[in-house]
Amino acid sequence: MAASSAVTRLRQLLADESKIIVCPGVYDGFTARIALREGFDALYMTGAGTTASRLGQPDLGVITLNEMRGNAEMIAGLDPAVPLIADADTGFGGSLMVHRTVTEYIRAGVAALHLEDQPTSKRCGHLSNKQLIPEAEYLDRIRAAINARARSGGDIVLIARTDALQSLGYEAAVSRLKGAIALGADVAFLEGVSSTEQARQVCEELKPTPVLFNAVPGGVSPDLSVQEAQELGFRLIIYPGLALSAVYQAVREAAQKLKATGTQAVRTGESPRDLFNVLGLQEAVALDLAAGGRLYDKGV
């Protein structure tokens, strides 16, 4: 299985030390299409958003590999040239399941995934009282991912994430990341960074390995702009709640207006055609015409 152009592109971006890769969080085809239209270098598929949109449940380890992989495959396929970084939670089980997860993500066209050191009954990284697996077990998880990549014949960027900071402290968390890097992880992800000083320290200590910042407004980490994150030394920044939060607020307000007034908000210049154009309406029409179809020859 040849390495995809998306993985190659992501590795090229990571090799440019003057650049920070900005990844808006998306969770379905619609939000991914909107982000793609804005021209970002990469996308991030949030596990919390995937769980919310597909299951209507909180991020508490209830989603399965097949549900996550299927969602990632659909998003990655919308524009295979744009790298998709996808949450892979804990790998969904022991070493054999981690092996399967990495292999499935590679086959799905995912450019990068991150694996964490919580047990399979995990929870969102910005909730409290997270449990952790022992460091040796976590490194076995990373080793299984490295082995799966090697055996696949393909490629994927492996991001080692640790949630150990809050309960075990900085030194223990960084020890886990250094162990994962020594095994072959490409990127480090210290979840729940609590200050700018700590952020700068971890980026400096793990050089030359790129470090990822998880931007969660209202979470446990400082709210950093892209420029601030780059100045601290981060090489990637993900916004997992970007679409989820915006959709929650907009739909809630629209639902409240409908309930209270019996009407829905009308936005000037907005039509079903505009929405469908974001989703690829014109490209679909062109594909049909190119194949000799006549269903849309008079327009839509």
TrEMBL record:
Q: Where are the transmembrane segments?
A: none
The entry lists its GO molecular-function terms as: methylisocitrate lyase activity
Which InterPro entries does this UniProt record tie to the protein? ICL/PEPM, Isocitrate_lyase_ph_CS, Pyrv/PenolPyrv_kinase-like_dom, Pyrv_kinase-like_dom_sf
Record-linked Pfam families: PEP_mutase (PF13714)
The superkingdom of the source organism is: Eukaryota
The chain's coiled-coil residues are none
Q: Spell out the reaction equation it catalyses.
A: (2S,3R)-3-hydroxybutane-1,2,3-tricarboxylate = pyruvate + succinate
Similarity section: Belongs to the isocitrate lyase/PEP mutase superfamily.
Q: Report what the protein is called.
A: Uncharacterized protein
Which source organism?
Answer: Aspergillus carbonarius (strain ITEM 5010)
